[in-house]
Each structure stands twice: as C-alpha cells, then as structure tokens.
Design a protein that fits this description.
heterodimer; A: 256 residues; mainly alpha; Ferritin; B: 340 residues; 12 helices; 59% helix
Chain lengths: 256, 340
C-alpha cells in the first residue's frame, strides 16, 4: 500500500466502513426486487444497480484489507451488528412498494455521489483512485433514479402521491446519512481528507433541484441523533443482517 | 434457463391452409430455411411457436423466483454478485422471449396475465423446493446444464427470431453452468457438512433434472408438428440420455452418489437408495439409469407440486404491486406491446 501513517488507519477504516456498509446493504436490499420489479426492463436495470453497489462495497472492503489485513468477506459478513456503520435508511424496509424503493434509492444515490466526489480528492492515492472510478459509475445511478423521480413525479396523480408519501416517510432516515463518522476530523486535520464544507448542504441542494423538476419536496434536517454511524441500529437492520449472515454463519471459516 | 417444446397443437388446422403455400413452407423448412415473423406460415405453426416462446419466457421469469430468494443469503461477496447477475440474466431472457412471442401476435401484458391466472404454464422444474444454499448450486449446475443441452438443439430450429434469441441466451447459460459447477465443486471440496448439504440437494434435483426434458417420446415423435417443422431438433429421450451421459460421470467424479429417492408432498426426500440401474453400457455407449418418477411429474404438472401455489402467488403479487407503476408510465396503456 501507499504510505499511510498508522495514526490514520483506524479513522480511515471507520470512514471506509461507513461507505462500504451503506453500499453493501443498499445493494442487498435492492436485490430483493430482482425477479419481481414492476416492469421487466426496470427489473433488469435495478439488478444492475444492486450489483454495482455490492461490487463497490466489495472494492472498499478490499481497500480496507490493504490497511488492516482482514479478509473482505469476513469484514462484509462476519461482524456483530454494532460493528456495522451503515445509515439505517439503506436497510429500511420498502415493503415491496416501488415508490419506497425509489425514494430510498434517490436519497442514497445522491448522497453517495457527493461523498465519492469528496473522497476522490483524498490525498491517500489508493482511495482517491478508487473513489474516482466508482464516482463515474455512481453518476449512472444518479441519472437512473432521477429518471424515476421524473416518471413518477410527472406521472399521474396516483404516482405523484405515492412518491411524495415515500419521500416524506424516508426523509428522517435520509438525514441520518450525513451523520458524521467518528475519526473524520482526524483525517481532515491530518490532511488525508479535504474539508470541502458542509456535505449535507451540497447533497440537500441536489435533492431539492431534482425533486423540484418533478414537483416533489423533501423535508430533511441536519441529524441531531447518533445512529448507524456509531453502530446503533434499528430492527430492520437486524433483519437484514440476519439474512445476510444466514448461510455464512453456518460455518464462517468454510469456503463457499 | 429453460425451454420445453412439449406444447400441443392441432395439426388439422393445416387443413385450412393453402396447399401450395403449405408445401412451399414445408419444403423451405425441410431444406433448413428460416421463417421470419412476416413470412407466410400455417396458423398451426404460428400458434405452436407462440406457445413455445411464451412458455419459455414464462419459465425464465418464474425460474428467477427460487434463485432470487437466495440472493440476500448468498454467503460471500462473489457469490452474491454472481447470483444477482444470474437471476438478472434469467429476467433478461424472459424479456427477450416475450418480444419474440409478441411478434407472433400476443401482447406482453396478456401473457403476464395468462401466466398469473394459470391459463398458461411455465417449466415444471420450478415447482420444487430450494431449502438450502446447496439447492441453488444444484439448480445452476444441473438445471442450467440441462437447459444448455435442450436450447443448443432449439438454436437449430426454424423460427428466425427464436433461434437468434436462443443463441444469445445460450452464451449466458454457459456462464451460469460454470457458476453452478464452481459452486458444486466448492461444496464437494469443503467440510463434511457442506458435502452432506450438497448430496441432499443433489438428491432433490436429480429427478427434476431428468424430467426437465419432458415425457418419454411417443412412437410418432418425429412426425409431430414440433419436429416436422423443425422447432425441435432432438427428442426428449435423446436429450435426457445426453444429459445422463454427461452428468452421471461428472457427479460421481465429485463424490456425489446418484440415488433413486422417494419424496413427500413437500418435495423433500424421505428415503433413498443408489440407482440400481446406473452403469455405463458398453454396448450402447450410454449410461443406463432409472427413469424419473413420472407419476410425480404428472402430479406436479397438473398444479399439485410442492411449490406451484407459492411460485404463482409471488408472480401474481409482482404483477399486482407493479400495476400502478405501469399505469403511471404507460398512461394506462397496459396492453401496449413492448412497454409493460
């Protein structure tokens, strides 16, 4: 690996955990739709996005492996609930309601895009390189989910109402995406990451712009509570984790 | 993942066709010519081809369901990615095949509605249970392996759009088979528990794999429309024998035992014994084997298998939960071809 001072290892691992766990569980939940989405073409597209997210998570776990030496599958599958750092919106159940899935995808995809843009400016080259590559793919996610906001928001009265309800329901969970990861200030102070101002504000402006074109609104506030980023998760996360680990945990050391 | 040409058609419909056109059509097909959607064809050919393509498309999207349920439980990052991609492929195959069928005169929405109301069928092999991860490995290895053998012959058929689609699908099925083979080899090289899990899943899937190719041939098989018009180019029994010749030695090489099993109503094995007929027959060059339980096959195909109701219920749920989305996007035109 490129030289990274040991004092930054744990702070950077924690930031990477947040990014990778968000991606892993968003892809995990979106893959629920593989085979049963409302339209075959949407099914195929959503599967691609789920694969992208799981592959992105995998790439981040591999990067973590270069720092910690820990096996990527063990990082992804082998932790206790309180060691995962995803925001709970990624595992918030969509109850097989397409509007919910789109609202969840919308908030998460836009947040990921802006977060990846910032990680692309990381002074530790391996992370900057990876973030730049993934960010290019993330723009496809942003465009795709934007087209769904357009289709449903500018669709019929029923779809407008369903989408707005979903956006409202997921807004409190969306705000928790911007809960600050422990250790990020150390990385700013050490010059590993560049503090480029408020990520929440940048993301929120993008959210409002896209929704505005479809006549939709989102009421998102800066998070005041501490949740997923500190390992404090809700029941939907627990269900997702149990499912993720069901086969793996029958023999965590076996090759599958 | 699967195709079956075991749909029936009334050959007497040809009596209504112009004899000169029919003769020219049959000569063209017999000489290896292709039929395109706008070419003249006997109504019986159109009807049979539509039913084949529709049945195949239905099988792809219903086949996505048992495997789809295991994506979230896949035990490694690699397996999770591969399984999502595989199931996505199956849905993509369904999408392509519905387009082939649409060209023969039925809208996708009508086909999806007929599927969930039980008017049309899908492949029987998806009515069996997948209680463990090893079942997913066996489906990808055995069922996709069977599909490759079957579809390899269908790719030499007479309907242009269908054979072109088959060729494309078969390339992807080859990856699915490799993925299945790799998963089975991993389990059979693993712990005792993994090997046991693989053997138990193999016991559940060997019979459905043999039955995959459909019932035993009739004496007049080659004179029936599907073969006469080159929609099928090999009989069910020929394909089944090819399958056993390939998979019996391959399974035994991994350490799997080929058993004859009795199952309960849930499709789970209650007793088993090694197949007493299984041996390589030096005279014929083929592997001898015990035929699948055809009584059970008939029961399952009539809708009374372990999972028929669950599979259809999930397809119906999928169709109904997506109706509002299709209405919003298609402005109510839910019967428009290619768009729903």
């Amino acid at each position: 690996m490129s030289e990274l001072n040991k004092q930054f290892h744990e702070p950077l691992l924690n930031v990477l955990r947040c990014v990778a766990d968000d991606k892993l569980f968003l892809g995990h939940r979106n893959s629920d739709w593989t085979g049963i989405a409302p339209i075959l073409e949407a099914d195929i597209a959503f599967s691609s996005l789920a694969q992208d997210d799981i592959a992105h998570a995998s790439a981040f776990y591999e990067l973590m492996n270069t720092i910690s030496g820990e096996d990527p599958d063990q990082i992804a599958f082998g932790r206790t609930a309180d060691a995962y750092r995803c925001a709970d919106i990624v595992t918030k159940s969509d109850d097989f309601n397409w509007a919910n899935a789109i609202a969840r995808q919308f908030y998460c995809n836009l947040y990921d895009y802006h977060r990846l843009l910032r990680l692309s400016n990381c002074t530790w080259a391996p992370l900057a390189t990876l973030a730049k590559r993934i960010c290019a793919e993330q723009t496809v996610h942003v465009d795709h989910v934007g087209s769904w906001i357009d289709h449903l928001g500018n669709g019929n009265d029923d779809s407008k109402q369903r989408l707005q309800t979903a956006l409202d329901d997921y807004a409190p969970y969306a705000s928790m995406l911007s809960e600050k990861p422990d250790g990020i200030d150390t990385l700013f102070e050490g010059g590993i990451l560049i503090d480029e101002g408020c990520l929440f504000t940048q993301w929120k402006e993008h959210v409002d712009t896209v929704l505005g074109t479809a006549g939709m609104k989102a009421h998102i506030d800066i998070p005041s509570a501490r949740g997923g980023r500190t390992g404090n998760h809700d029941d939907d996360f627990a269900l997702s984790l149990t499912e993720l680990q069901e086969v793996f945990s029958t023999d965590p050391l076996a090759a599958w | 993942m699967s195709a079956s040409a075991n749909v029936e058609v009334n050959i007497n419909d040809c009596a209504k066709a112009d004899p000169e056109k029919l003769a020219a059509f049959e000569k063209h097909v017999a000489e290896g010519g292709l039929i395109e959607p706008n070419d003249w064809m006997p109504e019986a050919y159109r009807s049979l081809m539509l039913r084949m393509a529709e049945h195949h498309a239905n099988s792809e999207i219903v086949g996505a369901l048992p495997e789809g349920e295991w994506i979230t439980k896949a035990p490694s990052l690699l397996r999770k990615l591969a399984l999502t991609a595989k199931v996505q492929d199956e849905v993509g195959h369904g999408q392509m095949l519905y387009e082939v069928a649409q060209d023969l005169g039925k809208t996708r929405n009508a086909m999806l509605r007929d599927l969930i109301t039980g008017v049309t069928k899908y492949h029987n092999c998806f009515n069996y249970p997948c209680p463990t991860w090893a079942d997913i490995c066996m489906i990808a290895w055995l069922i996709d392996g069977a599909a490759i053998l079957n579809q390899g012959t269908l790719a030499h058929g007479s309907f242009g759009p269908y054979i072109r689609t088959m060729r494309r699908i078969n390339m992807e099925e080859a990856f699915h088979f490799k993925h299945g083979e790799d998963m089975v080899l991993t389990l059979m090289s693993g712990t005792d528990k993994q090997k046991q899990m693989a053997q138990e899943a193999f016991d559940r899937w060997w019979d459905p794999s043999l039955a995959f190719f459909g019932p035993n041939d009739r004496p007049d098989e080659r004179e029936r429309p599907a073969m006469k018009w080159r929609m099928k180019t090999a009989t069910n029994d020929e394909l089944r024998q090819k399958f056993v010749n390939r998979f019996a030695p391959a399974a035994m090489a991994t350490g799997l035992v080929i058993n004859v099993c009795k199952k309960d109503a849930d499709g789970l094995v209650v007793s088993k014994k090694p197949d007493p007929l299984l041996k390589h027959n030096e005279e014929t060059g083929n592997w001898d084997f015990t035929q699948p339980d055809w009584d059970e096959f008939i029961k399952v195909i009539r809708g009374n298998g372990p999972c028929n109701k669950d599979r259809l219920a999930l397809r119906r749920f999928s169709y109904e939960q997506g109706e509002w989305v299709r209405r919003a996007i298609l402005d109510g035109a839910t019967d428009a071809p290619c768009n729903n």
